[in-house]
Amino acid sequence: MTLQVSVSGSGTPLVLLHGWLFPGAVWEPLAAELAQHFRVHVVDLPGYGRNVNYVCEPYDMEQLIAAISSSVPRDSVAIGWSLGALIAIDWALLRPEQLRAVVLIGGTPRFTTAPDWPFGTPPEQLAAFTQACQDDMAGTIKRFASSQAKGIPQPNATIRFLNRVLAQNPPPADDALVGGLHLLRDVDCRDKLGEISLPTLVIHGGEDSVIPVQAGETLARHIPDARWACFADSGHVPFLVKPRAVADTIQEFCDELG
To answer: Where do the domains of the chain lie?
Structure first.
C-alpha cells in the first residue's frame, strides 16, 4: 500500500503522524513552521483524509507501519501525536533502522488504565466511548473535538480549527476509527521502552486532559536519554496552541542529531 503524503519544505525529512479522528490536516500550523527548515511529510493514516479508501487489514501496528514506511523517506524523524505517538513508539521498536529519531507529542505507552497504570482512560470508559461512536457519531465527534482544548485558557479558536479540519475532509473510514480505538485499548509498550535506541524527544501539554502529563513523563524517564519538554496551558494539542515554540523545540532537537 502506498499512501498519499503531503510534502513541503526542504532539508532533513520529518514524518508527521496524526492522532485518532483527525486527518493529517490537523498538523497545518506546525507543518508551516517546520517547513521553513525541514522537508515535511504529512501523512494521512490509512482510512483518513486522502487515504480514506485505503484501510489496511488487519488494522494493526505492523500493517500501519508497513504502509507508512513505504510511503516516506528512510532516515526520517517520525513525529507522532496521541495515537500517532503510539505508532511512532512501535515504529522505533519494530523498524528502528528506518528512522533517524522520534518525537512523541501527547503520547503514552498505554492509553487505558490498569492496576499498575493510573495514567490513562479506564477501559470501561473507552468501551462506552466506542459504543457512543456507533450510536451517535456526530455528537461523539463534536464532544471529542472539544475535549482536545481542555486546559487551554482560550479554547474557542482551537476548537474552531479542529472542527474546520473535520468539516473540510472526508469522514474517516469506520474501520479506521474502530481499528484505532482497538489499538488504544490493546497496545501496551511500557515494558519495551528501554529498548528504544533512537534519539527521542517527548513533548506534552501540562494540562492535558486526554493523556495525563504523567504518561509523557514516564515516556521521557524510561526511554534511554530521552529529552522532555512540557508546555503549560496547552492541553492535548501543544502544537496548535504554541506552534512556533513547539517547532523551535523540535528544530533544536534535530539540530543536535548531526
So the answer is: 5-255
* CA dist., res. 248 & res. 87, Å (int): 23
Please, is 159 exposed, middle or buried when counting C-beta atoms within 10 Å of its C-beta (0-12, 13-18, 19+)? middle
Residue 208 among the catalytic residues: yes
Read off the pLDDT of residues 185-241 as tens digits, 9 standing for 90 and up.
999 999 999 999 999 999 999 999 999 999 999 999 999 999 999 999 999 999 999
Among residues 82, 90, 204, 234, which one is catalytic?
Answer: 82
Q: What are the percentages of helix, strand and coil residues in the chain, rounded to 5?
A: 45, 15, 35
Give me the helices (H) in 57-173, please.
Answer: 61-69, 83-94, 123-135, 137-147, 156-167
Catalytic residue list contains 8? no
Q: Which listed residue (18, 41, 204, 236) is catalytic?
A: 236
207 within 8 A of 151, measured Cβ to Cβ: yes
Q: Please, where are the H alpha helices in 81-135? A: 83-94, 123-135
What CATH code would you report for 5-255?
3.40.50.1820
Give the active site residue among 69, 76, 204, 208.
208
* Known catalytic residue at 191: no
- Helices 137-147 & 156-167, crossing angle to 10 degrees? 140
Residues across the chain = 258
For residue 6, CA distances in Å to 23, 40, 41, 47, 205 come to: 12, 8, 6, 16, 26
Cell numbers for 204: 506534552
Cis peptide leading into 58, omega within 30 of 0?
Answer: yes
Burial class from Cβ neighbours inside 10 Å (0-12, 13-18, 19+) for residue 153 reads exposed
Residue 116: what residue type?
Answer: D
Question: Residue 216 forms beta bridges with which residues?
Answer: none
Instruction: Name the pTM for this structure.
Output: 0.97
